[in-house]
Specification:
Length: about 400
């Protein structure tokens, strides 16, 4: 299988989705492995942008489980949850005869289970910022070192060149391994039109000269993410067997759950859940808050620096109302605790509702004819998507 391996702090999933859509639209049998899932575990394993069936998942899972039992009988430890699912993915994709595999790392890169892939077609490193610092290190350079661990000898790396600190580490590793390096800088992307659903820009890098691209999201960061995917396609398909027109059309048609996704008219869910993700989220809200009433539905998990996230949102946006809720599970931050933090930083109306379904209903009512943004955790996004699925049923 031809594997494209993607690492980074934010934007991994979006870049993977862009790549998968381009390859699928070109008629390639394309597998996609991402994490986490929002509603159903099958979301992590896709063929031509359709999640695998329960039967296909179960068949591969049972094969991996047999191997795990053998490992344990030999005195080896049980693999982690993510390692197990990566094993299931590789078995699934082989069984389903994938030609290309777009592979998202789980955490970091260097020591990630996905890094057992020895000969990828290309590696891609998206934006790097401070997240999972207790595991990956407390500086951009340390985190970049972990992400750059996916670079393989002689294999091209396409990377986001926005951070000089990260770029220095990536280039040093690429040079050491003799790997051609291809950056995307923000200056290569010239935005000329923004709407509430998309951003149009000209791309100038690789073979793209003043190429008009539509990123189908209102989030500014998707300009660089779509450009990374387009440049990666240039690198793996230099003869343009997949035409530039097809690539650009596929970018426009890409759908990716939970990243500035409009789920109902005026209702947008976003998985922003770390400092950089929230900074990007804020930029998107700023681009529309002068024209619309803004309501925020927020929750977070306990290991994130949610006070810093809340402070960033309140100091740089002007929501009319905030509804605070709490996700299910053992990583919960009580809604009352989050409300107290919001009260320190905003004079907006604050509603505390621990029940997510009731909180979502209240937030939709408060929205009136404005925009409702739901952010703070991918788990919150997953819970909302589940509520909407129930409503459809």
């Amino acid at each position: 299988m031809k594997i494209i391996h993607v690492a980074g702090t934010n934007g991994k999933g979006s870049v993977c989705a862009f790549l998968s859509t381009m390859l699928t639209e070109a008629g390639k049998r394309t597998a996609l492995f991402t994490s986490p899932h929002l509603v159903k575990i099958n979301e992590r394993f896709q063929i031509n942008n359709e999640m695998v069936s329960d039967e296909e998942f179960l068949s591969a899972f049972l094969k991996v489980l047999d191997v795990v039992k053998g490992m344990q009988a030999d005195g080896l430890p049980h693999p982690t949850y993510f390692e197990l699912l990566f094993g299931v993915a590789m078995v699934l994709f082989e069984e389903l005869k994938a030609e290309y595999v777009v592979l998202e790392t789980g955490l970091g890169g260097r020591l990630d289970a996905t890094n057992t892939v020895e000969h990828p077609l290309a590696t891609v490193i998206t934006s790097i910022s401070l997240d999972h610092t207790e595991i990956l290190g407390d500086t951009i350079e340390k985190i970049a070192f972990e992400k750059a661990g996916i670079i393989k000898p002689g294999v091209p790396v396409i990377y986001d060149g926005s951070s000089p600190e990260a770029e220095k580490v990536i280039l040093a590793r690429a040079k050491e391994l003799g790997s051609p390096a291809y950056p995307v800088y923000p200056s290569m992307c010239e935005v000329f039109l923004k709407s509430d659903k998309s951003i149009d820009f000209y791309l100038n890098c690789g073979y793209y000269e003043h190429a008009k691209v539509t990123a189908p999201y209102l989030a500014p960061y998707q300009v660089v993410n779509s450009s990374l995917a387009l440049l990666a396609m240039d690198v793996i398909d230099p003869k343009q067997e997949i035409s530039q027109d097809l690539r650009i059309r596929a970018i426009k048609e890409t759908k990716w759950q939970g990243r500035m996704e409009t789920v109902l008219p005026g209702v947008i869910v976003d998985g922003a859940h770390n400092a950089d993700g929230i900074a990007q989220f804020v930029k998107t809200v700023q681009s529309v808050q002068e024209r619309y009433r803004i309501v925020l539905l927020f929750s977070a998990v306990v290991e994130k620096n949610y006070e810093e996230m809340i402070h960033t949102i309140c100091s740089q946006t002007t929501p009319s109302a905030v509804v605070v809720t709490e996700i299910k599970g053992d990583r919960i931050v009580p809604a009352g605790e989050l409300s107290e933090v919001f009260a320190k930083y905003t004079d907006a109306q604050i509603v505390t509702e621990p029940d997510i379904e009731k909180a979502f209903e209240r937030a939709c009512t408060l929205r009136q004819d404005g925009l409702l943004f739901c952010a703070g955790s991918l788990y919150l996004v997953g819970e909302i998507k589940e509520i909407l699925e129930k409503c459809k049923a």
